[in-house]
């Protein structure tokens, strides 16, 4: 008996994980990726002997025994020989002459916050208490919600009880509301340095609590190496990976059932099921008709206030020195380099010293991320029509950032060199990312009560959606979980067991 074939559009983390689970479930899986290397946005590239890591700052799910960790291990992202690198701090926030560090030791963070701002002590203790509660929270990753039975729900409630309590406490609040509870400007900055101001109020305590729980390590080798490990696992199970070729269309028969895909070289590939692990902006209106989009997703694209997306201007610098002025991730005021109202007031500088393979001996690589509102998409996409003007503007801004870094960290003067610069246009060109944002949309206090789109395509029974946009605000955990869930949903359609032991 011939195995059923699953065609997976997109070889990012969601598509790769879906491929591994498809092979484990007894399907024949094929992944089609437009770029010449797997990983999608979870990737990196080399410049002048340095490696630029595009994705992982810390990885949720490195703690053994959690459902998310099982996905990482099953998919091959983490193995017995994968060293997990850890840090004693999440990031450092600086404003004027004041500085705060989010330590893994949460008691130390609490003491330093109170010492900085005694007038905020009551609110500080409340916030830290919520962060401690969040240490017990596990991301649900066992089965899709519609496939959970009573026993599954009971089990999930045990691990999600703290999360539900925190969500209730912050109901109707966003990160701006949380910031405004504090008098000290640095504490307000510290909270929004990780979470956008429009994100839900519980976002910061959930994220920091995950970090202080001991989770959130970094797999040695970085983003690209992790993606390639999953590809190796997929191909080792018999899956087929095709890179450097785009999928142009999903082909339907007269009964509105998908029968395959057409590729950019004109070939038709037949399959029984199709997993769209690409950006939903590419799925609808390109792979399938726009009128097949479900109402939630249609509202996401139409209601910009309720579901914002963002962009990033990023620069990588080589450092001709082994002096580390940053000690990890550093958040500072971006006022000297802000060139529009939609540019973030804060800027992240990160040193990759934890990974010696990223730079030649005696040197370092640092990267800068400057957040952009989604209005930035119009700016960069218009500028890109003139490639030389686009290049010159990138280098001008990068040069201003270099000067700013050298003023703040004088030991870097004369030692920095621009290696690469990338913008929202980069993510759009390489990954079809909507408005060039490398995550999903943000759920806000203005979003609908159910802001999660359907994983199915209206009127087509054998297409399943995966990827970050199925589980906003996105990120690697969302991508991986939705990759697994896509195969479980197909198994249910086949009338088969959906559990992976």
User: Helical segment tally?
Assistant: 15
**Given this structure, which CATH class of the largest domain is correct?**
Alpha Beta
Identify the strand order in the major beta sheet. Answer: 7-6-15-16-17-14-18
Give the biggest sheet: 7 strands, mixed
What does this structure look like?
This protein is of the alpha/beta class and 501 residues long. The chain has 3 domains: 210 residues, FAD/NAD(P)-binding domain (3-Layer(bba) Sandwich); 127 residues, no CATH class; 127 residues. The protein contains 15 helices and 20 strands. A 7-stranded mixed sheet has the order 7-6-15-16-17-14-18, with helices on both faces. Strands 9-2-1-13-20-19 form a 6-stranded mixed sheet, covered by helices on one side. Strands 10-11-12 form a 3-stranded antiparallel sheet, with no helix packed on it. Strand 11 and strand 12 form a beta hairpin. Helix 4 crosses helix 8. The longest helix has 22 residues. The chain is globular and about 65 Å long. The model has no long low-confidence stretch (mean pLDDT 95).
Strand and helix layout:
Elements: E1 5-9, H1 13-24, E2 28-33, E3 44-47, E4 50-53, H2 67-75, E5 84-85, E6 89-95, E7 98-103, H3 106-116, H4 121-134, H5 150-169, H6 175-179, H7 185-194, H8 203-212, E8 218-219, H9 222-236, E9 240-243, E10 247-252, E11 258-263, E12 268-270, E13 273-276, H10 280-283, H11 295-302, E14 310-319, E15 329-333, E16 343-351, E17 364-373, H12 376-383, H13 387-408, E18 416-422, H14 424-431, E19 456-457, E20 460-465, H15 476-493
Parallel strand pairs: 1-2, 1-13, 2-9, 6-15, 13-20
Antiparallel strand pairs: 3-4, 5-8, 6-7, 10-11, 11-12, 14-17, 14-18, 15-16, 16-17, 19-20
Helix pairs in contact: 1-9, 1-15, 3-4, 4-8
């Amino acid at each position: 008996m011939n195995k059923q074939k699953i065609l997976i559009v997109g070889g990012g983390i969601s598509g790769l994980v879906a491929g591994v689970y498809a092979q484990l479930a007894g399907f024949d899986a094929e992944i089609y990726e437009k770029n010449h290397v797997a990983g999608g946005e979870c990737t990196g590239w080399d410049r002048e002997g340095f490696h630029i890591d595009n994705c992982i700052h810390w990885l949720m799910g490195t703690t053994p025994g959690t459902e998310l960790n099982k996905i990482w291990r099953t998919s091959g992202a983490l193995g017995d020989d994968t060293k997990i690198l850890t840090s004693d701090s999440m990031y450092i926030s600086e404003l004027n002459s004041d500085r705060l560090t989010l330590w893994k030791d949460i008691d130390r963070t609490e003491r330093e916050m109170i010492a900085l701002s005694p007038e905020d002590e009551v609110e500080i203790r409340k916030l830290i208490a919520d962060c401690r509660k969040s240490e017990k929270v596990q991301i649900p990753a066992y089965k899709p919600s519609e496939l959970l039975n009573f026993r599954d729900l009971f089990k999930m409630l045990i691990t999600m009880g703290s999360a539900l309590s925190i969500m209730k406490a912050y109901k109707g609040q966003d990160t701006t509301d949380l910031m405004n509870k504090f008098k000290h400007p640095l504490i307000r900055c510290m909270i929004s340095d990780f979470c956008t101001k429009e994100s839900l109020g519980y976002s910061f305590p959930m994220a920091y609590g995950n970090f202080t729980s001991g989770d959130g390590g970094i797999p040695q080798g970085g983003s690209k190496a992790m993606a390639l490990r999953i590809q190796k696992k997929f191909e080792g199970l018999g899956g087929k990976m095709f890179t450097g070729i785009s999928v142009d269309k999903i082909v339907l028969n007269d009964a509105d059932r998908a029968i395959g895909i057409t590729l950019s070289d004109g070939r038709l590939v037949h399959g029984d099921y199709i997993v769209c692990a690409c950006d939903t902006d590419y799925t609808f209106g390109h792979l399938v008709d726009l009128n097949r989009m479900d109402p939630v997703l249609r509202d996401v694209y139409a209601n910009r206030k309720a579901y914002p997306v963002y962009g990033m201007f990023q620069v990588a610098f080589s450092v001709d020195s082994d002096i580390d002025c940053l000690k990890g991730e550093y958040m500072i005021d971006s006022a000297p380099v802000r060139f529009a109202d939609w540019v973030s007031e804060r800027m992240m500088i990160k040193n990759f010293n934890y990974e010696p393979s990223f730079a030649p001996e005696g040197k370092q690589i640092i990267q800068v991320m400057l957040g952009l509102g989604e209005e930035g998409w119009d700016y960069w996409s218009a500028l890109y029509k003139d490639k030389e003007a686009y290049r010159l503007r990138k280098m001008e801004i990068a040069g201003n950032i270099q000067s700013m870094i050298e003023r703040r960290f004088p030991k870097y003067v004369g030692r920095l060199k621009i290696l690469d610069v990338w913008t929202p246009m980069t993510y759009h060109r390489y990954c079809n990312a909507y408005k060039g944002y490398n995550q999903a949309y943000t759920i806000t206090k203005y979003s609908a009560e159910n802001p999660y789109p359907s994983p199915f395509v209206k009127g087509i029974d054998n297409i399943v959606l995966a990827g970050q946009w199925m589980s906003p605000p996105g990120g690697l955990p969302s991508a991986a979980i939705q990759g697994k869930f896509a195969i479980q949903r197909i198994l249910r359609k086949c009338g088969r067991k959906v559990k992976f032991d």
